[in-house]
Amino acid sequence: MSTYTSVTDDDRAAMLAAVGVRSVEELFRDIPEAVRLGRPLDLPAGLSETEVYDHLRALAARNVSAEDEVSFVGAGMYDHYVPALVDSIVTRSEFLTPYTPYQPEVSQGGLQVMFEYQTAISELTGLPVSNASVYEGPSAVGAAGYLAKLTNGRPRFVVSRGLHPHSRETLETLSRGYGTTVDEVPLAAGVTDAEAWAAALDSDVGAVFLQQPNFLGAVEDLEALAAVARQHGAIVICACDPMPLALLKPPGECGVDIAVGEGQPLGNRLDFGGPSFGFFAAAEAYLRKMPGRIAGETVDEDGRRGFVLTLQTREQHIRREKATSNICTSQALNALAGVVYLSWLGRRGFVELGELLLQRTAYARERLARVEGVALLHEQPVVREFAVSLDAPVERVIERCAELGINPGYPLGRDYPEHPNGLLVALTERRSRADIDRLAEALGVAVAAEREGVVEVGA
Amino acid sequence: MSAVDVRQTAQQRESATTIYEKSKAGRRAFVPPPVDVPERPLDELLPARFRRTVEAKLPEISEPEINRHYNRLSKRNFDLDTGFYPLGSCTMKHNPKLHERVAALPGHARLHPAQDPKRAQGALELMWNLERALSEIAGLPHVSLQPSAGSHGELAGVLLTRAYHEARGEQRTKVLAPDTSHGTNPATVTMAGYELVKLASNADGGIDLDDLRAKADDDVACLMLTNPNTLGLFDPNIEEIARIVHGVGATLYYDGANLNAVMGISRPGDMGFDIVHFNLHKSFTQPHGGGGPGSGPIAVSNRIEPFLPRPVIVRGEDGTFDFDHDRPKSIGRLRGWQGNFGCFVRSYAYIRSLGAEGLREASEIAVLNANYLLARLREAGVAEYLPVAYDRLCMHEFVLSGAPMKRELGIKTLDLAKRLLDFGYHPPTVYFPLLVDEALLVEPTETETKETLDAFADAIADILREAKEDPEVARHAPYTTPVRRLDEARAAKQPVIRQPL
Amino acid sequence: MADASYPDGLLYHPEHDWARVEGDVATFGITWYAQDSLGEVVFFEPPEVGTQTKQGEPYAEVESVKAVSDVIAPLSGEVVEVNGGLGDAPETINDDPYGEGWMVKVRLADPSETEALQDAASYQQTLS
Fold this sequence. Notes:
The complex is a heterotrimer of chains A (459), B (501) and C (128).
Chain A: H1 9-19, H2 49-61, E1 70-71, H3 84-90, H4 93-96, H5 108-125, E2 129-130, H6 137-152, E3 156-160, H7 165-178, E4 181-185, E5 187-188, E6 191-192, H8 194-200, E7 205-212, H9 222-231, E8 235-240, E9 258-262, E10 278-282, E11 295-299, E12 305-309, H10 316-319, H11 332-369, E13 374-376, E14 385-390, H12 394-403, E15 406-407, E16 410-411, E17 422-426, H13 433-458
Parallel strand pairs in A: 1-15, 3-4, 3-7, 7-8, 8-9
Antiparallel strand pairs in A: 2-10, 5-6, 9-10, 11-12, 13-14, 14-17, 16-17
Helix pairs in contact in A: 3-11, 5-11, 6-7, 11-13, 12-13
Chain B: H1 10-13, H2 42-45, H3 63-74, H4 97-103, H5 106-109, H6 121-138, E1 142-144, H7 150-167, E2 174-178, H8 184-191, E3 195-199, H9 209-215, E4 220-225, H10 238-247, E5 251-255, H11 268-271, E6 275-277, E7 298-300, E8 312-315, E9 321-324, H12 341-379, E10 398-401, H13 403-409, H14 413-422, E11 429-430, E12 439-442, H15 450-469, H16 471-475, H17 488-493
Parallel strand pairs in B: 2-3, 2-4, 4-5, 5-6
Antiparallel strand pairs in B: 1-7, 6-7, 8-9, 10-12, 11-12
Chain C: E1 11-13, E2 17-22, E3 25-30, H1 32-38, E4 43-45, E5 52-53, E6 58-63, E7 68-72, E8 77-82, H2 92-95, E9 104-108, H3 120-127
């Protein structure tokens, strides 16, 4: 059994004597007999450190990670390279082990990081106000919905079907609590159907939700869609992939009021889905209604520049049932990874990486479109991810590719039954032209084999 | 300030400079991989109307300088690895280094959340095992690991309560919570569309049963409770509380913030709770990361199970694991994917390291350490100025009131906290719970030694002695930290929340 | 910060608000006691001109760094003017609670409501 305590028998005797009780048992006398467990927990016995390591290593070995296969899976989380510098900084005790910066005099490191992070997110989104981050992407969409509800109280939300399915479902879960209904607008030719969008809007709509690029990888005409929503006084909320914001017009310049998104692509590892961070940026008008922590600049009593958590009266420890959110933390460590990563990419590098993704995505899309039995699902501009439709059962094709050490993408069928054999293919800088060629080849072989199989069964 | 002030520390002399202010055109760290595909004109791939015209003003800076910037910044933080951090309600226990190593294994760290469950069996088995362990610790049969934090678990719990009542055709409108509750409880109640009704505390710091009886009616959906509560006291009336709450058909919700006092000793499920949230970052030792990430799994009783967030992990007859998305009564998702898996790896490693016996021992020592520190403070003569708010044996934490100190010595709880920084300690939680005037909430945790507790008690005694002679010292503390007391009013009045560029 | 004072000639509400009635219009603010317990005011959230106040009910919010407080209307009526100067300088509420720190002017709906308010002397008695 491992133990992280250090009480010796002598310590225990001395401590009990100081307290004035005879046994540790006596310290628990307030707990009624009837609610005591009275037996050991039914859990395996404790292990030594080396045994725990071996057990965890054996479990990890049963996963096929992006280390083990050539993966084109994205769908909101991406296998970007995390620089060694990020690992080195986020594992420092001084960033890893403190709590929330309640005592700013001894938390200037963490608070300044938040301030720098907020600056980066503000630059990426083109919006002046960023918080210090929230849990992750889809719950950030949910948090934006609650802000809209607090702001105008209207009874309906309108969401594009291009919004990540997890974001749509999270929004529905949360809005059921406070009684706002969610209506969905379909996609047409891969992007939000402009006519249906206009038809769904009226003065009952408190907020609209879009995603850029949308879940199928298509770049939306954000400005046009936002403009229609604003005519009806709806708050425009857009979920963004932060990486293409190197190239895309920032949401703040497209009429978006609140931009949120999944921060994982920025220097955070995949971790089977978390922890990562959600970014949350908004127009000035929402400053005092923002959820979560915000760091602000000030001076100390000798006039030195310093940072504090600010505008805390929004938060639940002060405003309690009137708080603007129940979120009482940021994802400080993950946001730190984000800002170190963005600084490492730098002003030019961020754009260069965006352009590399754009070029490789275009190449991959063209390459796959030439494969027999593979067709583009839409022809809209794409920046790092695109959707195709297979003329074969997608799950079986994925199995065949897996045997070749390739994970070809994310199957769309569960989330988009209208595309039963749809496949979402994502690129990162780690997927070279050679990898793309291998993917095209593998897909060709797998689709062909499945089509032959169909013929055989039918014959 | 004069040019050379000999009293300043090196850190105080250094003025805070952001990474943006260190930027210089032309510097860089990242070198992109080559464009290895036929390059096409930008306009062809992405029409100009979709493109940004001004690039994001990220810093231009070399890798050595980024490295130095953040390493230097890190030294402006106080951290648990370096010093005692008795922050009440936050359970700042040691973060074993093994956990970072196993979480970073590529099979965990580079596993895509959309990987087919067939090729993520190790991850699903880990989650399944963690669910079983948490279920046993809570005394409730079903677990969802999805919520991202304690407050997220609370929201899940209250939405589950809503779904449970609605499935029975009932529209209840109110949720009860004691006046000592964490602020997230009332905030969650409002977010889930309920009206908060506050319960009074009795003279012993527990729930006032008469007030509960008066307010428990058919409109009440749920009572949210922390036990031991935020005063560090176990409510001995818990069975009666559960009877009253269940008697009106409401659910009983357990805020697991204080679970570290009772692991393997008493289980929320056995106390009558229907829904429990865990703070993996407290009882099960996640590093707090300067305020996140955390993780807030929930455990529930059979009657709540059909409504759990989806997907849920299932084990087939052949022993393989899968995600079940087909859950028609589910409240739905609360976030993307399956939760903060990286946190699950760490807490699972912790539970396997300690085992049944070790978890119980952790709680026992946490309670022993808290009671010892309280006794030691008394012995040091501190009680006269900082009496314990409720004079009985405490659980894993206790509340002192700084009211006599403020009255007799002229220093406030805030002053004491700031002076503690000069002594190298992180202060306890201050001004919470709200019920106690000038409150200090102290939670030493089980991983601290007797020597550390002795030294901390002595430091408090020293500060009080010093204040008797000259209260001005504490009133203007701290003196040795990278910055001194900060003007929070200025930050709130004219918010500057990003670097102007 | 100003010294403690409770001017005669004002009417006081037990929730620490004052009203200065001039004809059918009254000016509202918070008392010295209220601003002292709140600490330095960092934000004032005014109502919009045209909204109705109701005696005993909140019509605005004041915030310090660590607290937020509803401002209670001493009298009912329609807001005809708000003190725009508090937007940039909310600390005026601390510096001059009965003068430049006024909050709104209200056209009174029911002048007889003043009977429920206290004079300076009886309000001060409630503070001790």
